[in-house]
Amino acid sequence: MAHFTLYHNVEINLTSPETLSVFVTIHQSDLENTDDETFIRETFQFPREVSFRTTYDRTSPDLPEGCHLAILEARNPGGELSIRLSPQSEKRLLLVVSRPGAFPETKDLPPGASHTITLPDPPSVKRTNPWIGALLVAAAIGIALLLRRWRLASLAS
Amino acid sequence: MKLLWLPLCLLVTLAEAAELPDAIRFEPGALNSATIQGPDGQLVVYGSPTAQPDAETVLLTHVRRDLASFARSTAESTEGAVAPAASEALLTEPEQHWNDWWDKRYNYYGQQSTRLPILPLKLKQTSKDGDTLKLAGLEIEVMELPGYTTDMLGYLFEMDGQRILFSGDLLLAGGKVADLYSFQDAIPEAKVGAYHGYGARFPLWIESLRKVAALQPDVMVPLRGPLITNPKADIDAAIQRVQAIYSNYLSTNALHWYFGPERLGTCGKRVLGEDAEVELMPFAEHIELPSWCQHIRTTKLLVSADKHGFALDVGGKASLDSLKQALADGLIAKLDGIWVTHTHNDHTAFVQEAAAHFKCPVYAVEEVADVLEKPGAWFLPGTSENVVPKVKVLKDGEAMSWKEFQFTAHFFPGQMYNHGGLLVERQDHEPVFFIGDSFSPSGLDDYCMLNRNLMREDTGYFLCLQKVRSLPTGSWLVNQHIPHLFRFTSEELDYLESRYRQRQELIGQLVAWDDPNYGIDEQWAWIYPYGTELKPGSSSKLQMRLWNHSEKDRTYTLTFHAPEGISITPAAEASIPARGFAEVAFRVELTQTIPNGIHVITASVSSSGEGLPSFELPHWSEALIRVVED
């Protein structure tokens, strides 16, 4: 669709709390002098500490004409996430943030602007308390020693 | 009286003929004809009303339906025509194009002319830039002259010490051109597609005109209208006019908002020159959307206090999925209706699926509703083939209450003619006018001429500006693509209107018609329905829809042309008052033996009016008839 070339279109999907998913719709006219990876890197800036793995959807029948989708996924780090549109961008950015149980939130960013969103808390990870770990190790060693003593005692009798 | 390019210029024939060597017989007409006597035979350029069996060949400068038809009798009575290599397939296998066109016409954003040949033309050879043709004992230099079309060639003859250039539709006498919509195309260097490429081929055209000027021809023989006896003066005038038009266009352009000044600057420098200053309107005041209006891609969703929804446009699956999700999440309890702003597929393609899913009515103004209900009957940019079978038509000015909202429907022919606007009022907010895609904070969405942006006081952007000025004080505008409210000051509205009025005048100077609207409106005469499915032996009533853009009454005479197997009312006539509109009915009947497939009918249009120039347009409009089995 011709109108799909008016803006860059990025959706940050937060419907799954474990995963931070960013869908970048790329129109073929965006790639005249570059490739997908370079285009994404040079147009949209995310915090360096977020490490995305990227896959592409080029075949879905739901894609707008002349477009394909880059899917950037990372483990949800929690806290905040900012996205900046390069000052050299050749068009504005429509940024959609999708959250469960809410209307999609749409932001219109001119080149050079950034927007920060609050990420949902990641699912509680059972983090190992170092004291608990030490106690567990000590308990295991204790049990092993007891078992050994019991075995030696059995053999002696 | 203005001198048009199309009239039978009988009064000027003798005077013009005097400008040409004796060996060239020039016959002015709806399409000009020239017969050239060479040392070894005769050549025909363009064509002839009657066969010229003594000629060696007929030269075509470009490939359009009227020219191919005009050349046919001579091509068939000789070894065939000489035509641009770039358009060979369109001449030898036109049926392939039309067979594909039945489907391709939907969702179409290519914006190229459909005035293409229907029947194959016998070809002797093709020609291209740099060729030297040796025909009838004459040497003819061939040069490409793209711009008005992509395939235009010029044929340069030297005779009796004169340089004569047959230049097709490149330029018309007086520094004019037949229309502006033929220049619509992509601008790759600015990453602008054909749909947004207003005047995209102006730079090519200017380059071609300068190339011709450098050749210093004594006379140019165009396909239409009088000879060009002072090529340099006409070329200079044409370039100056088109640059003024383009500069004006950029200064009020909605794309500035989306693409920024650099890309618009790239567009401008192509036409105006590297050092040109490109004037752009600064952005109007804009703010965030109110909480009761959700932006979901090209859908706007109004949400009432009791969580009912009312959607404006549903153009994509993602929009529909979001609406379904909103219902599933309890964000809306029900969708009560869908208003369709205009007929582009990014606003309409999923309207029917949404209406069926939510069991809600679809509303639109009449000009939009008919396209939704019968998309195959229309040929407009980006028309979805998805039918919306039942649309509730709201008249211009008709009010409707919904929850705590008051709606007023408007016919709003801005971005395209088939366009509406919805004024939304509620107690706790300034009025918001949902104007579809008709303005952005930087101006007018008039980048695609095939959308029919008529430059008349009673319609088009003049009417839209008048409606915007008439809104309650403090009203906001909202575009379906933009998640902001925006509004123009009265000074900004004055600027937009005065610049647009200037452009109307500039276009009037460039196009060879008595009113500029004929030169920007490809569909002032068109056949409705554009596409019809019929069975062998059946018949159907069609209409010629005619807009008299002239400021005086005109009489239009229609002559219909049909292929074998279709009979058609031979001719019809209509008198239409100044600025009026008429539907002229005619009937097509199919024989029992007509083969299945796509058949193309055409209509020639001629017109005259008191105090107005006459014109004659062979095979001007076409319609498709698809014959299907019982």
Which helices and strands occur, and which strands form pairs?
The complex is a heterodimer of chains A (157) and B (630).
Chain A: E1 8-13, E2 19-27, H1 36-43, E3 44-45, E4 53-57, E5 67-75, E6 80-85, E7 93-98, E8 105-109, E9 114-118, H2 130-156
Parallel strand pairs in A: 1-7
Antiparallel strand pairs in A: 1-2, 2-5, 3-6, 4-5, 6-9, 7-8
Chain B: H1 10-17, E1 24-27, E2 33-38, E3 41-45, E4 55-59, H2 65-77, E5 81-84, H3 88-92, H4 94-104, E6 123-127, E7 132-135, E8 138-144, E9 153-159, E10 162-168, H5 202-215, E11 219-222, H6 231-251, H7 255-272, E12 285-288, E13 293-296, E14 299-303, E15 308-312, H8 317-328, E16 334-339, H9 345-348, H10 351-358, E17 362-364, H11 366-373, E18 392-393, E19 399-402, E20 405-411, E21 420-426, E22 429-434, E23 439-440, E24 443-444, H12 460-469, E25 476-478, E26 484-487, H13 490-510, H14 516-520, E27 525-528, E28 531-534, E29 539-547, E30 554-561, E31 566-568, E32 571-576, E33 581-590, E34 597-609, E35 612-627
Parallel strand pairs in B: 3-4, 4-5, 5-6, 10-11, 15-16, 16-17, 17-18, 22-25, 28-35
Antiparallel strand pairs in B: 1-2, 2-3, 7-8, 8-9, 9-10, 12-26, 13-14, 14-15, 19-20, 20-21, 21-22, 23-24, 27-29, 29-33, 30-32, 30-34, 31-33, 34-35
Q: Order of strands across the biggest sheet of chain B? A: 1-2-3-4-5-6
Q: Estimate what percentage of residues of chain B fall within beta strands.
A: 25-35%
Output the helix-strand order of chain A: EEHEEEEEEEH
N- to C-terminal distance of chain A: 88 Å
Average pLDDT, all residues of chain B = 95
Secondary structure tally: strands of chain B: 35
- Give the strand order of the largest sheet of chain A, numbering strands 1, 2, ... along the chain: 4-5-2-1-7-8
Molecular shape of chain A: elongated
Task: Using a beta-carbon cutoff below 8 angstroms, give the protein chain pair with the largest interface and the number of residues from each chain.
Answer: A-B, 28 and 39 residues
* CA-based gyration radius of chain B: 26 Å
The percent of residues in helical segments of chain A reads 10-25%
Tell me how many strands of chain A there are.
9
Number of helices of chain B: 14
> What does the radius of gyration of chain A come to?
25 Å
Largest sheet of chain A: 6 strands, mixed
**Class computed from helices, strands and strand pairing of chain A:** alpha+beta
Tell me, briefly, the overall form of chain B.
Answer: globular
Binned, the helix content of chain B reads 25-40%
Instruction: Tell me, rounded to a whole number, the average pLDDT of chain A.
Output: 87
Oligomer: heterodimer
